[in-house]
Structures are given as structure tokens and as C-alpha cells.
Amino acid sequence: MQHSWLSDFETRLDQLERASIGADVVFADIHDLAVAALKCLGAVHDISVWLARPTGVEGLRPDGQSPAPSEFIQAEITAAAEEAFVLTDSASATSPSRRLLTVSAKLADQVSCVMRVTFEQLSAPQQTFIEGARAVVDDVGGWVSRHLMSRYEHLLTAQTELASTIGRLHLSSNFKAAASVLAQDGPAVLGRCRIAVLLRRGERYRVQAMTGVRTPNVEAETVRAIEDVVNNSHAAQSAIATSEWQELDQIDEAGVAGAAAVLRHGDVAAIRMAALATSGDESIDFPMVMSVEVFTNTERPNEQLLRQLLAAAGPVFAGLHEQQRTLLGKVIHSGKIRWLVVAAVLLAVLSICPADFEVEAPGQIVSTNQRRIFAPENGTIDDVRFQNEDVVQAGQLLLKLSNPDLDLEHRRVQGDIDTTTARLASVHATRLSGGDPQLSGEEAQLKQQLQNLKEQKVLVEKQLASLQITAPFAGTVFRRDSQQELMSRPVQRGQLLLEIVPTDSRWQLEISIPDDRMSYVTNARHQSAELLPIRYVVRSAPEQDWTTTLTHVDNAVEVHDGQMTCRATALLTTIPQAELRPGTTVTARIACGRRSLGFVMFREVIEFWRQVRFAWF
Q1: Given its phi and psi angles, is residue 243 left (phi above 0), alpha (psi -120 to 50 degrees) or beta?
Q2: What is the Cα–Cα distance from 154 to 160, expressed in whole angstroms?
Q3: Radius of gyration of the chain measured on its C-alpha atoms
């Protein structure tokens, strides 16, 4: 049993390790377990834990306080944080053998957990005691990393939310908007709580906004209870002595009419009025009171954050309060008048202010000299010798078709030619040997028949030759899934097989202008001596606009996809993409002069009303 301290230390260390990863373990428990573990190795009098950061040194105590150390201690802790351990004498008149061990654990870059252990006699070897202390500080540092760092992160998040809330408060144009911001966004700053904002209405404060509620129910029991607490705050201050919350300092210097806060714990266990800043007149009516309710088993709000929130809210509500005292302020803050003024100003802006008027129409980019290849005859495609977007040369074979009827017709005509030729030779020989004059007429008839058959053969051969489709010029062939769509497929005469675009092709924009918008384009062309500008985007790449001018508009109207449209074209001076494909869809906007802003924004509504008025009247 001479090493019983070792088993006891391992047991205590295991308890400390499990506690350091617990969810509900507080620092007081960690501190007690650390002391108990080290006492297994020697006579430990005290341990202290410090958090060393570049901004300074912070002490961690079991009672939750964070004392500010002296400059001497800060220097010692900062230096010890860079070492694995530091062992020094800490002798005094009463304890001449007392020593001090300082160990540290790295939590993050430039952040360390430092533990100082004061001890006298050791039960274990000194090196074992040092190693044990380092194991303990590692577990303590783990708890610090998981709990205290999360608290700092939460505080930083709350500070960010506070800045955002203050910004929205200052953007509020009236009491109701400011109260809503404070009630709905305040819990993001203060933590889990319920905030009620009360505004002065005559002799009483009335709930204007409450967390989680769009419009508070004035008849609700909770709302009425909060109003009673606030309006009877002078009587409630007799319960201040039982409050567990420290009294809040004054929000701002005298001279700023501020805000008030009633802090409620549980039901109405603790109520306290926050600093009510006055301008030297104690009878001033505070424009706003904020009630903060913290319920059972919930951490109370950070008082510094609460002070900052109240300090920001006070001037906002005081300023709104002063604005309402003026005639202009009453007009601005009167809901009906404000909306009428806003509507009148908006109507004037929409009627007077001019804006660029553009007519939107769909379109596509095509080549000015692209060629569509159609099936010359009925037949079946036997061979496909290109892929989509292949570059081909003039005369290159692209497709081979077959037509059994043409082949049969070619053999029939050739057979008739052979038969007629043989018959003509026989008649000619008989006429020369016998001298029968009737054979002369038959010979002439056979010659004419043979000539006709040869001409038929030439026509059939031309038809057969047309089944060998070649590229009319050098360019790029376009046919999606050419092998799958064309190979061994029967085709009809006139069926589109492929498209080919010359290598040096020029491109143009074909726009289908809806018939109901054509009048705007026509009027703009008549009123302007210059070509109308066009702004368009390629639908497959809408991140960039391109511009051109309208060069031609057809006079005829055609039906396109069930809609009456008029075709217009525009040459492209700049190419949207390095490689364009025929049929690339675009959305074009044709500039048609300037109209009022209201007409530009609500053109469709105005046109619909004109149609309805015409139909009714």
C-alpha cells in the first residue's frame, strides 16, 4: 500500500476528466475536483486558475467572479504561459517550506490556461507531482475551452446583434416601429427572455409591443399584469431589498430624457427600475418603459448589454417624443395624414418623372447566310458522316440516303434502254438488207423512244445523286444527336436534316414583336430620325447586356406559337459569345423613347384598364 496515493490520484483524475466534458458542470465543481486530485500527491494549500490572452490575464474563481490581477501577477502569469511548468519557492515566516508550482495548458493560439499550485510536503516524487499537475491543468483547460470560450463567443454574438438592433432602432420613424424593434430583436441581445415595451398614453403606460407577438392583446392577463407592475412601480420599489439583481447605474448623464426598465424574475419576485435619466425635472414623463422577464432556470441578462441597449433606446424614444410635440411631428406621426401625403407624393412622382420606356420581345440569334439542308427525296438515311458542331469543307459528304423506288426505276429505265437499243439495231439491219420502206418509220419511232428513255435515265440519276448530301460550303454543321436522330431513319421530302453556318458568317438578331406592342415601336420609329437602340441578353448567359440597333421591321404580321407577332431584325455589331449557335434565344428590349414613370411601371395594368373600359363603355 506504499503507493496508495497513485491509485487515489488516478481515481480523482478520472473524475475530473469526466466532469470536464459534462454539460452542466460549473467551475466550482472543476476547482474542487482539481484540489482533491492534487491533494493525493501532497499537502496542497491552494490552487488558482488563470486565463492568459494577448489582451490580458483573467482570474477564474469558484464563486464566479473574475478579479483583475495586479501588474506583477499578470507579468508572472504571462511568462509562465510560455513554459510547461515553473517551480519556485513561496516561503513565508509561518510556512518556510511552502513552494509554488505553475503549469499551463495551451487552449488556442496565444491563449493558455495557467494553474498555480501552492504546496509543502509531497506524498509522491516531485517529478510525478509536476506531471500530475500538468494532467490536471489539461482537464481544467478542457473545461475552460468548452464553457468559458462558448460564453465569450455568445457575448461577441450578442454584441453584434446589439449593434444591428441599435441600427434598426435609429432607422425607426415612429414609436410603434421602434417598440417593435426593441421587443422582437432585444432577446437576441439579452438572451432567453421576454421583453414588453410600454409607451406613455396619458397617465398610464400601455404595452405597445411584446416579444413573439405581432400585436399585443390588451385584454390578456399577462399584458395587464405588466402594465400594473409598471404603473405601480413606486409601490413595487418596496420589494427592491429582496431583489437578487444589482441596481443598474444611471444610463446617461443628466440632461438626456431616457428610458426605464423593469426587471422581473420569475413571476414578480424581483422588480427594479433602471436608471431614469432626467433633464433636471424629476416630473418628466418617460416616453418608454421596457419590461424584461426572465423565467425560472434561465440565466439573467448581461447587465452591461442591458445598459447599452437602454442607453441606445433612450435617445431614440426621447427624440420621437420631442417630434410629436411639434405640429409637423403630429402630421408626420399621424397615420392617416402620413399615408395620404405619401400617396400624393408618390402619385406626383409617377406622373411627372420621366423614365426610359422599353418594349420587351423574345428573339433569337441567326446567321445572315446560314443554310438549312432538307431531304431532297423520300428515303432512308444509310450513313451519317458528321457530328454536331463539326467543321466541314465544301463538297464533303455528310449524309447518304437510299430510295428503293428510285433504284427500281433506274433499273427499269436501263432495261427499257437496252431493249429499245436491241430492237432499233434489228430494225436497222432488216431495213438495210430488205429495203422495206415501212421499217424506216419504225426505226425513227424507236430512235425517239430511245432518246426519251435516256433523258428519263438522266433525271433518275440526278435524283439518285441528290441522295448523296454534301456540304455546299465550308462551315460548321449543327444537328443535335446526329447519329441517334438520323441514322437508319426514314425521312420525307422537305424534312429538315441539318443546318450549316459558313466560317466567316455574319450574325443578326431576329425579334418577334407581339402585335399589341407593335404600335409603340412604330411610333418611336416615326418620331426618331435615328435607328432605335436595342438592349438584349442571351438567356443562357444573362449576366451581361449587349446592345445593337433595329435595322428592319416587316410590314406583315404572322402567327408564331399561337400569337400574332411582327418580325424585326437587327445586325449584330458585337458578338455576345465566341461561338454562337443558330437559334440562340435572347430577350430583347427595344427603346421606344421616354414616358412617365407610372406608365413604364404599370403599362400592362393601364392597357388592361383601357380594354375593360372599351368593352364596358
Answers
A1: beta
A2: 10
A3: 48
Domain identity same for 178 and 320 = yes
Judge residue 566's burial from the number of C-beta atoms within 10 Å of its C-beta, 0-12 exposed, 13-18 middle, 19 or more buried: buried
Question: In sequence order, which ranges of 353-437 are alpha helices (DSSP H)?
Answer: 404-434
User: For residue 273, what are the domain limits?
Assistant: 172-333
Supply 327's cell numbers: 405640429
Do 451 and 594 lie in one domain? The reply is no
Domain contains 186: yes
Q: To the nearest 10°, report the CA torsion of 361, 362, 368, 374.
A: -140
Residue 494 lies in a domain: no
Q: How distant, in Å, are the alpha carbons of 34, 113, 273, 429, 615 from that of 139?
A: 9, 10, 43, 126, 84
Q: Is the pLDDT of residue 339 over 50?
A: yes
Q: Is the pLDDT of residue 257 over 60?
A: no
pLDDT in tens, 17-76: 888 887 778 888 888 889 888 888 888 888 888 888 888 888 888 876 666 788 888 888
Which alpha helices (H) appear in 172-276, and where do they start and end?
Answer: 175-190, 221-231, 233-236
DSSP annotation string for 249-272: PPSS-TT----EEEEEETTTTB--
Q: Mind listing the pLDDT tens digit for each residue in 356-369?
A: 888 888 888 887 77
Instruction: Look at residue 425 and tell me if it is in a domain.
Output: yes
The answer for residues whose C-beta is within 8 angstroms of residue 202's C-beta and 6 or more apart is none
> DSSP per residue over 436-489, as a string?
-THHHHHHHHHHHHHHHHHHHHHHHHHHHHHTEEE-SSSEEEE-TTHHHHHTT-
Does 15 share its domain with 83?
yes
Asked which of 487, 515, 541 is the last residue of a domain, the reply is: 487
For the chain, count helices (H), then strands (E): 17, 24
Q: What are phi and psi of 506, to 5 degrees?
A: -100, 150
Non-local CB neighbours of 426 within 8 Å, separated by 6+ positions: none
DSSP strand pairing (541-549 vs 507-514) = unpaired
Q: Measured between alpha carbons, how far is residue 54 from residues 76, 174, 579 in Å?
A: 14, 44, 58
Q: Which cell goes with 513?
A: 414583336
Are residues 26 and 150 located together in one domain of the fold?
yes
pLDDT tens for 475-494 read 888 888 877 878 888 888 88
Residue 237 carries which DSSP code? Answer: G
